[in-house]
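SEQUENCE-TO-STRUCTURE ENTRY
===========================
Question of interest: how does this chain fold, as expressed in backbone structure tokens?
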Amino acid sequence: MLLDEVDFRTLRVFLEVAATGSMSRAAQALYLAPSTVSEAVRQLEGALGVRLFVRGTRGVALTKAGEAWATHVRDILERWDAALGELSSEARDDLSGVLSLAASRTVGEYLLPRILPGFLTRHPGIDVRLLLGNTEEAILALERREAVGALVEGDVPPRPTLRKVPVLLDVLTFAAPVGGREICAACRCFSEAGGLRLRRRNAACRTWKEDDACGVLARARWLVREPGSGTRALTEGLWQALGILPVQTLTLGSMHAILEGVAAGLGVALLPERVLASSTVRVAACRPLTGPLAPRFVRRFHLVTRLGEGNLLLSAFARAVRASAEEERDEEAIYEDEEHAREGSDGKGPIP
């Protein structure tokens, strides 16, 4: 391989080997044969005329030259993606082709229906093909090259060949059947755990006196998503923060099914507020607005792409997502102002 023949695919292979410290693990992550990865590294070292890795019995490690090269490679790929983003903003309505996206079910059911109409009206020549799964499945589809981008919620583990950009905030809330003791227990438990100010709906709990509020939550049936779901991971993190281990859980495959189950008295759950806002189903809801527990009710949606593989269609979609984020921030500010006004007028404050 000559130096001017080095392509982005070879650079991504190099970054993966550098991150994993293993030719075989890099091959697994990239869905390539180990021999293909080894040959790509060998040809890259030959083209550059330097050794990038020290080989050992337990894997490989970057040389000093390799460490310097890795820094420059990531910068090159990020600049390439940024350049495509700027170019797509100039292309505007002339874009056409197939845009294959992967998304978590929460995104696909409650977020994309808000984003796609305006995006497709602006770009009628783009054909969107969507794969839905949980967060883990959406990232896997991206890695398998079944999609060029993945829009997912929750934590996305860092990968050297993937680029994740936070695009939207997602706020969750504890949901329980209306009139049940669980909502009052949650308000009390959150307050005891440091929730200095609470937002609650359909909850008349100021006179609730039962002890062991967090114990009530531990004994409640929790409706959860399957392993691999971002919402499932956030729910388990809340249990850990509260120091509870629910005695019974019920796994359901969609947010809509969980919401209907809560309304029917089947159990309690952690649900995105956007799910509640889009439904006429009545549930009682509560979440801490301040204090150390509050961040556990907020997560980010990320647009994840393969580093250095951005394209004009994906960049245009990313702009549409960012525009939707701006609209949501404006709406959230209005909602917060109205919420504060209601609290001031009816005298309802935090649960004591």
In short: The chain has twelve helices and twelve strands.
